[in-house]
Amino acid sequence: MSDILAAEGKEFHAPGMELFDWGPLFPGGPEWLTWLTKPVLIVALAVAVTAVFLVMAFRRPQLVPRGAQNVGEAAYVFVRDQMARPALGKDAERFMPFLFTTFLFILFMNYAGVIPVLQLPAPSHIAFAIVPAAVVYVMMLVLGIKHQGLGGYFKGVLFPPGLPKGIYVILTPIELISTFVLRPFTHAVRLFANMFAGHILLAFFATVGYWFLIEKLTPAGFGVGVLGFLMTIVMTGFELFIQSLQAFIFTVLTASYIAGSLHAEH
Amino acid sequence: MVRPARSEDGHQRPDPDPFNDRDHRAFASAVWSVPSYLLSGMAVYGGLGWLLDRWLGLSVFFPIGILVGLGLAIYLVYLRIGR
Amino acid sequence: MSFILAAENAVSGNIGTVGYGLAALGPGIGVGIIFGMGVQAMARQPELVNVIRTNMLLGFAVVEALALIGFVVPFVHS
Predict the structure, then answer these.
(1) Which are the contacts of A44, defined by CB distance < 8 A and separation ≥ 6?
(2) Which chain A residues have a beta carbon less than 8 Å from that of C3?
(3) Looking only at Cα atoms, what is the longest distance across chain A?
(4) Nearest to A210 by CA among A12, A1, A52
(5) Contact A69/A61 with Cβ under 8 angstroms?
(6) Which residue ranges make up each domain of chain C?
(7) Contact between A163 and B79 (Cβ < 8 Å)
(8) Which chain C residues are Cβ-neighbours of A3 within 8 angstroms?
(9) Cα distance from B11 to chain A (closest Cα, Å)?
(10) Which of A231, A210, A237, A232 is nearest to A221 (CA)?
(11) How many H-runs (helices) and E-runs (strands) does chain B carry?
(12) CA end-to-end span of chain B, whole Å?
């Protein structure tokens, strides 16, 4: 295997962290433009696409939906019935604007990973996963304090009613760390890790296909190259699924965190 | 919306109404909090054990703390949703 | 023999990652079986949904603990 890989001096290199190193988009450009890297561009595009899509869909709503309004309404009903209502119940409509735009924004950021030319899911940089998670975290705290009062909220979270008295000493630290430290952490990392791993996976198979079929076409490596090419196609489909799933999960978790701060647990 | 389910013999069953089902809501949030409960149990009691080890110059309490934390976290999951 | 030497040159990094890969294998299968069987049981006995959900979660917590033990073993041993 490795003598195929090391054919003729130049070796096959699996893609690594350099996949995520993006310098400024215009390397020779002016100083004030250095912040514009590819991930930033993708996030800006995702914002633009979300805004344009929603304006197109709901600018002039008609009783019999046509075109973009059809898609928009289907998406809205999906988000409301599958994500908002199971968690929030009758409060779902109040938070639908936030949940719906969050869902579409994350979805478009993720889909950038399989769209040709872009081909980089923005949340594969952890910063772009942390910011939405941090927004949700702050929202969770503010809503909790607003709806249940400062003492009531923290008491409800740290000392859930219905447990034996002595247990609190042991379990409250776990509860504290779990809710206020690990919850936003896992919320962000779940999205980030899936996008990161998916991007590396796709890049690996694509590199294998390119290397063995175009760069170093040998009879021994041909089969490997074809396998890499086919796996690239299969994995692109799989990534499409994972990207939708992660956007879904992110929104479901958002809804469930908000629901947790609106009402004390019983 | 969810319509009342009808069985084959035509009797109308009570509407399951998943949107107002508090159990369902608790379950949905609990599923996602299980991993963070386990992680925080390990972090808290593993960290305690690690500090004890630093203090006493041993290396026993860190693994013990991690296992105890996991056990307590599973117990907490049981208390919160299992009953 | 040169085969092994070449492989030695090609692979670098910590063997602990492979260990965690192996340790995640079992819990992965376990979680799959738990939720698969749980959904199957719910479909067969819709009136027992609450009991099944509870037991599903407890089983999930116990199995997930194994994966997390695999995750922290490198920290313990370092």
Answers:
(1) none
(2) 2-3
(3) 72
(4) A12
(5) yes
(6) 24-77
(7) yes
(8) 3, 6
(9) 26
(10) A210
(11) 2, 0
(12) 31
**Which pair of structure tokens corresponds to residue A187?**
């919320």
Lowest mean pLDDT among A167-171, A175-179, C56-60: A167-171
* A3/C3 CB distance under 8 A: yes
CA-wise closest residue to C67 among A232, A207, B38:
B38
Given a cut of 50, is residue A257 above it in pLDDT? yes
C53 contact residues in B (CB cutoff 8 A): 23, 27
Confidence label for A61 from pLDDT (cuts 50, 70 and 90): confident
For A224-254, write each residue's pLDDT tens digit.
889 999 999 999 999 999 999 999 999 999 9
The per-residue DSSP string of C19-73 comes to HHHHHHHHHHHHHHHHHHHHHHHHHH-GGGHHHHHHHHHHHHHHHHHHHHHHHHH
Contacts of A34 (CB under 8 A, 6+ apart): A24
Residue to mutate among A174, A186, A191, with most B CBs inside 10 A, is: A174
End-to-end alpha-carbon separation of chain A, Å? Answer: 60
CB A122 within 8 A of CB A39: yes
pLDDT recorded at residue B19:
45
Whether A61 and A71 have beta carbons less than 8 Å apart is answered as no
Tokens 């092994």 identify what position? C4
Q: What is the dihedral of CA A56, A59, A64, A68, to 10 degrees?
A: 10
ipTM: 0.73
CA angle A151, A84, A196 (to 5 degrees): 95
Which token pair is A238?
């799989």
Q: Look up tokens 């003492």; give the residue.
A: A151
- Going by C-beta distance under 8 Å and a sequence separation of 6 or more, which residues neighbour residue A239? A113, A114, A198, A201, A202
Rounded CA-CA distance B69/A107 in Å is: 36
Q: Note the pLDDT of residue B33.
A: 82
Closest chain B C-alpha to A133 CA, distance in angstroms: 15
Degrees (nearest 5) of the Cα angle A242, B77, C37? Answer: 55
Domain limits for position A225: 2-262
CA–CA separation, A190 and A173 (whole Å): 23
Identify which has the larger pLDDT, A176 or A165: A176
Q: How many domains does chain A have?
A: 1
Q: Which two tokens stand for residue A199?
A: 């991007």
CB-CB neighbors (< 8 A) of C9 in chain A: 2
Assign domain C24-77 to a CATH class: mainly alpha
Q: Would you say residue B2 has pLDDT above 60? A: no
